Amino acid sequence: MTGLVDAHCHLGDAAFDPDREAVLARAREAGVGHVVVVGASLPESERAVALAQAHAGLSATAGIHPHEARHWSAAAAARLRDLLALPEVVALGETGLDYHYDHSPRDAQRRAFEAQLTLAREVRKPVVVHAREADDDVAAMLRGADTPVVLHSFSSGPGVFAAGMAIAAYFSFSGMITFKNWTMTDRLTACPPDRLL
Asked: Which helix (H) or strand (E) holds 34?
């Protein structure tokens, strides 16, 4: 693998249908050598896998996003396990907790997140975690994760940062760090370079 790696891209989204190939070409021209296409629902995970199977330089994740957690079931868990067995799938995710929008009930989010952490441990895959306004629950659940973790688009407080550091998680910070009202500079500067995506 050479060049930059886009570690979190929703290239399977229908918004890319008209120009997905052009997007990939521009990424290659810009020096991106590999793209991880993220799944946030079962259909999106299946699209991510199909893209990774069809294109060199792409891999996929498979998971159930907290917005979709109300759809978690034994059947969803079984399908997710099947997807995670595929060689193109490099991680479980995007999963986690999002108490900002509450598109799924919080108890459903916690159940789905815990089940996916357990599944990731069983299949020995890292986990891509989405965490928004759920610091106490995310921090507590991370402490027992026992699998590699990426805290995607990190915007959580010091408790989640400390929990992530304690388990040697990787952190990605999005374009939010450029916002004038962004106040988490201490966490960005405290993040060791080898833990920063």
From this structure: strand 32-37
